[in-house]
Design goal:
- The complex is a heterotrimer of chains A (262), B (262) and C (327).
- Chain B contains 12 helices and no strands.
- Chain B has 262 residues and is mainly α.
- In chain B, helix 3 crosses helix 11.
- Chain B starts with a helix and ends with a helix.
- Chain C is of the alpha/beta class and 327 residues long.
- Chain C folds into 2 domains: 243 residues, Rossmann fold, CATH 3.40.50.300; 59 residues, 2-Layer Sandwich (Alpha-Beta Plaits).
- In chain C, strand 8 and strand 9 form a beta hairpin.
- In chain C, helix 4 packs parallel to helix 6 and helix 5 crosses helix 6.
- Classes of the chains: A mainly alpha (262), B mainly alpha (262), C alpha/beta (327).
Chain lengths: 262, 262, 327
């Protein structure tokens, strides 16, 4: 336990130092997340947006919240892993007495930490332009948002890692990952609030991991009602499915990697 | 001129020869086209429930905008992305020197060096959507409209190329430019919706600062046969200006490259 | 008329001084401090058509910068350059058709495709028609002893084969001036000899002017009757190789592997000790005494292994400049 804490501390602090070196790129990345703010413009102007019954403030809060939580659920492990495997940096990592995936987890957390200042700056600008949208979420809402954002990130990380493991068999694993991006765009709530979905699609979205990347934590942060119990049940089911899958694929993949003499 | 055509044939012949090795790609890319189209159609349809309109555009008219966006996306995958993201590695590996020593225009070489067949399916899908939706929207199919529409599409392709080239050329100074092209791609998704659907501030930004209006909305108007002369002239002038700026910028970048260390 | 003429050529870089760390970054952002570094300073020379000239100097001496200015990739800060009647930095097509640049550590061939594809591309770019291109490829391939390798993907070729294919691609348009930057870098001794032999033959057959840099003294000795020696951006010597080598390398380096560790005192009488690390010794011995000294040494010392070679050029130039032998 104490060893675990120590490793976690060292991993996080070194990864944070590393990410600080890339701060310019990370700032650009945060900027590429502005899609929800563009969508806010569209929805607030459109007839369909007015028919949703969220009101101007409701819409602003939802999309601003979506912008914020999305910054913490984005996963890029497949690109980092692919590059490490290609550059031959993987073999030394496999020799260390630490599951290499933890390294990527730490890198993601550190990168999110690096994003914080840029995120705050963008939110501040939006608040200045739209002062009526400003709100202060309750402590309960904040805690729940943090919990669900983190769970959403965990599910997303496991999902992408499972696909990443296919790197061991195929060079096209990242192309497979790209395919997941389209249902994500449609169902995550990044481009439209859940209210806009037809009821059937809404239920479907709530059963996939996608709605938990953006819509659910964003609703919590914006102070909209969320059925906590069913949401936890779905997330738990996905975790129970993906965690063993990910580990099985990892073992098989490493065995194959060794067999190929890499 | 003949030398340029012969060079272009060699360029693209070689590119296709090395792509044939990945047949698995074809399947993935076809699935990606269908998934991409389905997810953007779904999101767009959310704005049109109960006979709503978006920024004054009917459902089939807005579909033309989406089709144009899809077409440009295909162009990006076919030509812009494979060629222009390579400038970075030319700078990093120092092989830009070889390009500069060839008795052929270096911007031509860097922009047309290779071609990827995987942009073809999205382009065809875009054309199909445009054709179907234009007919539904009652667009005139007379030769004048077709010629004007073709010209406007050409202008938007030129503008898109110039934007990409400007960003790619700045890799002469900033090597980590890959993120910037991602930001550009994200911002370009704003072009999936008619420009008049955005609030005034954003509309101005997307017309003047980042000319997304000219990329999709203006050609769509031309296809629907309702473009005004002033927009057409503005679009042509802008395309010419962007192209000239890209050439001037490349000269400037090269001057800096040839007077700096390497 | 000279093929290459250079007068008072200089290149100065402005280098930013930045302290490491966050504080350094901030301080740098507030007040930029820069230093001018002269990579090449006031260099003048002329090279006649058909000459083969060796360009000597240590790492960072300014060789590559000069070659890049001659080929038009870098603009000079001062001075005048003329190559084949053109000003290189304009990089006009008629000039580019007459020159070529080969860099040992960079490649222009496409990694995943056979060299033949890159050759066909070059033919199109330089406007050589296909029949003529085939004829030239055949001719050059025979000189380089390249055959089926041209049809195998570049990544499957050995370093030596790849370098030969690079040379073929660089010479397809039959340039009158060749700038070669370390063309034999990393090659094994056989491949080096092959490349050398090819360059000599090419120069003979087409009367091309060649300017060559190399880390290997053997390249220069085999090919270049005339050498330019550059150090810290300045031209120190321009003349025949024979005259220089007598001054530059009066000694050879003898590297010994002993079976036991010996003190420096018992080694001094055989030559100047360059390095003594454990059982490995490097001695400098004058050329005229070499055979005699090595004989004595083998008789007197417990030698496990022995190797005689030319000392590395940059070390030699450094020491010789310090001693004031040249300059």
């Amino acid at each position: 336990m104490r060893r675990g804490l120590r490793i976690a501390r060292v991993l996080l602090s070194t990864q944070y130092a590393l990410m600080l070196e890339y701060r310019a790129e990370i700032a650009l990345w945060s900027l590429s997340g502005v899609v929800p703010l563009l969508m806010l413009g569209l929805w607030s102007q459109s007839e369909a947006g007015q028919a949703l019954g969220l009101g101007a403030t409701g819409l602003s809060r939802y999309f601003l919240a979506a912008f914020v939580v999305r910054q913490f659920t984005v996963v890029w492990v497949i690109h980092a892993f692919e590059e490490d495997a290609l550059q031959g940096r993987l073999s030394p990592l496999l020799l260390q007495p630490l599951q290499p995936l933890w390294r990527y987890v730490a890198a993601h957390l550190a990168e999110q930490l690096t994003r914080l200042p840029f995120l705050a700056a963008i939110v501040a600008v939006v608040m200045l332009v739209h002062p009526q949208a400003a709100w202060w979420p309750s402590p309960r809402a904040l805690l729940l948002t943090a919990l669900f954002t983190w769970l959403g990130f965990a599910v997303n990380f496991l999902l992408q890692t499972s696909i990443t493991m296919l790197c061991f068999w195929s060079e096209r694993a990242s192309a497979l990952d790209r395919l997941l991006f389209f249902p994500y765009l449609a169902l995550s709530g990044l481009l439209a609030p859940l209210e806009a979905f037809p009821p059937g699609v809404r239920s479907l979205a709530l059963a996939t991991p996608f709605a938990y990347q953006v819509a659910i934590p964003a609703r919590l942060l914006a102070g909209e009602p969320v059925a906590i119990g069913p949401a936890l049940a779905v997330l738990g089911a996905w975790l129970a499915l993906l965690l063993p899958l990910c580990l099985i694929l990892w073992r098989a993949g490493v065995r194959r990697y060794g067999a190929m003499g890499a | 001129m003949g030398r340029y055509f012969r060079t272009l044939r060699r360029f693209w012949g070689m590119a296709l020869a090395s792509e044939v090795e990945y047949r698995f790609n074809l399947l993935i890319e076809l699935v990606a086209v269908v998934a991409n189209l389905a997810s953007s159609l779904f999101v767009l349809s959310l704005f049109f429930g109960d006979g709503h309109r978006l920024g004054g555009w009917s459902w089939p008219a807005a579909l033309v905008v989406l089709g144009v966006h899809q077409l440009l996306d295909g162009l990006t995958i076919t030509l812009l992305q494979p060629n222009l993201t390579r400038i970075v590695s030319h700078v990093q590996e120092g092989t830009l020197d070889f390009v500069l020593l060839k008795p052929i225009d270096s911007q031509f070489w860097l922009s047309c060096r290779t071609i990827s067949p995987w942009g073809l399916p999205p382009m065809l899908a875009g054309l199909a959507v445009i054709g179907w939706a234009a007919q539904r929207a009652g667009a005139p199919a007379d030769p004048t409209t077709l010629v004007i529409a073709g010209l406007m599409l050409l202008c938007s392709a030129v503008i898109l190329y110039s934007l990409w080239f400007l960003i790619a050329a700045s890799s002469i100074w900033f090597v980590k430019i890959w993120n910037a092209t991602e930001v550009l791609r994200t911002l370009l998704t704003a072009g999936r919706y008619p420009i008049s659907a955005y609030p005034p501030g954003l509309r101005l930004l997307l017309t003047v600062v980042l000319p997304i209006a000219f990329l999709t909305s203006v050609p769509a108007e031309a296809i629907l046969g309702r473009a005004t002369a002033s927009w057409l002239v503005a679009s042509g002038a802008l395309a010419l200006m962007c192209l000239l700026i890209s050439r001037w910028f490349w000269r400037f970048a090269l001057r800096s490259y040839t007077s700096a260390s390497s | 008329m000279a093929m290459i003429s250079v007068e008072g050529l200089s290149k100065t870089y402005r280098v930013a001084n930045k302290q490491p760390g966050l504080v350094g970054t901030l301080r740098h952002a507030l007040r930029r401090q820069t230093t001018d570094v002269a990579a090449v300073a006031d260099v003048s020379f002329r090279i006649e058509p058909g000459e083969m000239v060796g360009f000597l100097g240590g790492n960072g001496a300014g060789k590559t910068t000069t070659l890049k200015m001659l080929s038009g990739l870098i603009h000079p800060s001062a001075g005048r350059v003329e190559v084949a009647g053109h000003t290189p930095q304009r990089r006009q097509a008629p000039f580019l058709r007459q020159i070529t640049l080969v860099m040992g550590q960079k490649q222009q061939l496409l990694w995943d495709l056979p060299p033949r594809d890159s050759l066909r591309l070059n033919a199109a770019v330089y406007g050589i028609d296909d029949r003529e291109a085939e004829r030239r490829i055949g001719e050059l391939a025979a000189m380089l002893e390249l055959g089926d390798e041209l049809n195998r993907p570049v990544r499957k070729l050995s370093l030596g084969e790849r370098m030969k294919a690079e040379l073929l691609a660089a010479l397809l348009h039959r340039p009158a001036v060749l700038f070669l930057d370390e063309p034999t870098l990393g090659l094994d001794v056989n491949a080096q000899a092959r490349v050398r032999q090819f360059l000599a033959e090419y120069n003979q057959r087409f009367g091309a002017t060649v300017l060559l840099t190399s880390h290997y003294m053997a390249d220069i000795t085999a090919l270049c009757p005339r050498v330019l020696l550059i150090h810290q951006g300045r031209l120190f010597y321009d003349g025949s190789l024979a005259a220089l080598s007598a001054r530059l390398a009066p000694c050879r380096e003898v590297r010994l592997e002993l079976t036991t560790i010996l003190p420096a005192s018992s080694l001094e009488r055989f030559g100047t000790i360059e390095a003594l690390e454990g059982r490995t010794v490097r001695l400098l011995i004058r050329r005229d005494q070499l055979t005699a000294r090595v004989g004595e040494l083998l008789a007197a010392l417990p030698v496990a292994d022995l190797e005689v070679r030319d000392p590395p050029i940059d070390e030699l130039i450094g020491t010789l400049l310090q001693q004031g032998v040249i300059g």
